[in-house]
Amino acid sequence: MTEIDKLRAIKDKSQLIGEFLESLSTQGLVLCTRHEHDENCYINEELECGYIEGEYYSVNISIEQLLADYFKIDLKKVEEEKQLILKQLEKQK
Q: How many domains does the chain have?
């Protein structure tokens, strides 16, 4: 099954969840996560991430990516498959 096939199979569920997430945004609600320092926060043993341990920060992930992660859809593969289909269509002309 291709990634595009997977995407088609979950279209209705994905649409419903996406609309719900969008409605949260229009109500001024934001998805957040609590920051926990890890090795990526340090450069030469100095704290460089700019975040405070335990504070909440908005999640900077698009709704499209959240849905893809939830439904285990690889958006990069979807794009590659779309490009392949377009190339095949162009050859048929």
A: 1
